[in-house]
Design brief:
- This protein is an alpha/beta fold.
- It has two domains: 356 residues, TIM Barrel; 91 residues, no CATH class.
- It has 13 helices and 18 strands.
- The strands form five sheets. Strands 5-4-3-2-1-13-12-9-6 form a nine-stranded parallel beta sheet.
- It is globular and about 75 Å long.
- The structure holds 2-acetamido-2-deoxy-beta-D-glucopyranose (3 copies).
- Its EC number is 3.2.1.39.
- It is found in: Cell membrane.
- Pfam families: Glyco_hydro_17, X8.
- InterPro entries: GH, Glyco_hydro_17, Glyco_hydro_17_plant, X8.
Length: 470
């Protein structure tokens, strides 16, 4: 008898979950982010053929590119498009602008192109100038106007939301302590959650356990971050919930934060997650082994039937988009920024990955051993990369020396680094000097691809190159 009741309850739960999800665009098919900040990328046509080959169920783009939306017509790929941050304030203030956006970017393609999500802005709450803060308060009004416009066309199938990064959190540890930042909690998060709850939309979260781990790679457990069985589990002291991986911890912290504002049932979508396949010398853990391990274990976790969910929300599907399709060589910042791809734009797959989640680990070719899971300790210099043209180098040299504070004093006539007098030699010195001076203020050793880090001291004669010690 008891057994019978249990079965019935199980059935009811299943039935209600089915009801809750049946009209939403929810599936446990893995999606992929298609970023296009590269000058060596395949054409949209070729890219979409690749996306079909890797069997991505969803595709997310960072705009509403007409060529891509046309090419996706008639495919079974669910599509997520984006209102750019620059468009938010106009749309927030004027319904006609929202109507025009929908008229121009949705109606020509929908429903032949299976647009499922419209994301308004990208990580809007992560920007923090006076002007950016104005955008925070325009965010929910813009979302509502886009929704209203869709409703005017009787389009119910497209959910509207906005992807946010983990920096919306004031605290995220232990997960039960999760709380949104006080500067956005009342004014942005509450109205956002109210909208998402009312319209059965999703909380879109960009969540990177890699970034959390990399803040302190010596103390943080890499196995826990990579979903490996060897990991030590963690028990939240307040709830007693047991965590086997960092991603669940981060997701649950957001679930607890929503709950504190009174929203217990808003569903999550992971709009971005992933792991860099390479990076700079001062960026441990960015390698093919970890990237493949993270993404394979992620896909398996998110596609398994019945769904696992998280400790705070067991059994719930979390639609997931991996970042990213391609390595993007025109992104600035540290080396990892240019190495989130599953594919190298010119050479193909960087590692094997089955987005369906069925392939057993033993079926994959062996991965190269990770070489940089422990932080490098020592000096690093920043020098000219191989194969760089002298014309480009001149401008970079001028820029570096223009930053003042004696960056290029040693290059003056009669100073110790004046000889040899060549753009190449002077740029080598200027890059190292600039980076050593300004790294703590956020400068990177990149110079649009002209510079690379090295552990080999480029000093010569009496010319000592400034270095960074890590
Ligand atoms: C709203 O936008 C439309 C279309 O650009 C424009 O014609 C109209 O004047 C705007 N209304 C307001 C109140 O700014
Ligand atoms: C969320 O939506 C549900 C279902 O529509 C509703 O019953 C509930 O009151 C809403 N929660 C809040 C906090 O508004
Ligand atoms: C010199 O360095 C200081 C501190 O890093 C910085 O605030 C200042 O802007 C620099 N000067 C110039 C001309 O860049």
């Amino acid at each position: 008898m008891e057994k019978h009741i249990v079965t019935e309850l199980g059935f009811l739960t299943l039935f209600f979950s089915f009801l809750a999800f049946s009209n939403a665009a929810i599936s446990n098919k893995i999606g992929i982010n298609y970023g296009r900040l590269g000058n060596n990328l395949p054409s949209p046509y070729q890219s979409i053929e690749l996306i079909k080959t890797i069997k991505a169920g969803h595709l997310k783009i960072y705009d509403a590119n007409p060529e891509i939306l046309k090419l996706l017509s008639g495919t079974k790929i669910h599509v997520s498009i984006m209102v750019t941050n620059e468009q938010i304030s106009n749309i927030a203030s004027n319904q006609t602008q929202a109507n025009h956006w929908v008229r121009d970017n949705v109606l020509p393609y929908y429903p032949d192109t299976m647009i499922r999500f419209i994301l308004v802005g990208n990580e809007v709450l992560s920007y923090n100038s006076d002007q950016d803060r104005q955008m925070w308060f325009n965010l929910v009004p813009a979302i509502k106007r886009i929704k209203k416009s869709l409703q005017a066309h009787n389009i119910q199938n497209i959910k509207v939301g906005t992807p946010l990064a983990m920096d919306v959190m004031e605290t995220s540890f232990p997960p039960s302590n999760g709380r949104f930042r006080s500067d956005i909690s009342k004014q942005v998060m509450t109205p956002l959650l109210q909208f998402l709850n009312r319209t059965n939309s999703f909380f879109f979260l960009d969540v990177y356990p890699y970034i959390a781990w990399s803040q302190d790679p010596t103390s943080n457990d890499l196995d826990f971050t990579l979903f490996r069985n060897e990991a030590q589990t963690y028990s939240d002291p307040r709830t007693g919930l047991i965590y086997t991986n960092l991603l669940d911890q981060m997701l649950d912290s957001v679930i607890f934060a929503m709950s504190k504002l009174g929203y217990d049932n808003v569903m999550l979508v992971i709009s971005e997650t992933g792991w860099p396949n390479s990076g700079d010398i001062d960026q441990p853990g960015a390698n093919v082994f970890n990237a493949a391990t993270y993404n394979r274990n992620l896909v398996r976790k998110m596609t398994v039937e019945p769904p696992i969910g998280t400790p705070a929300r067991p059994g719930v599907v979390i639609p997931t988009f991996i970042f990213s399709l391609f390595d993007e060589n025109q992104k600035g910042g540290p080396g990892t920024e240019r190495h989130w791809g599953l594919l190298n734009p010119t050479e193909g797959p960087i590692y094997e990955l089955d987005l369906i989640g069925k392939r057993p680990e033993s079926d994959y070719l062996r991965l190269p051993k990770p070489v940089n899971n422990k932080p490098y300790r020592g000096k690093i210099w920043c020098v000219v990369a191989e194969g760089v043209s002298l014309t480009e180098l001149g401008a970079a040299l001028t820029f570096a020396c223009g930053q003042g504070n004696g960056t290029c004093d040693a290059l003056s006539p009669e100073k110790q680094c004046y000889e040899p007098l060549s753009v190449m030699a002077h740029a080598n010195y200027a890059f190292s000097s600039y980076w050593a001076k300004y790294r703590s203020a956020g400068a990177t050793c990149h110079f649009n691809g002209l510079a690379v880090q090295t552990t080999t001291d480029p000093s010569h004669g009496s010319c000592r190159f400034p270095s960074v010690s890590v």
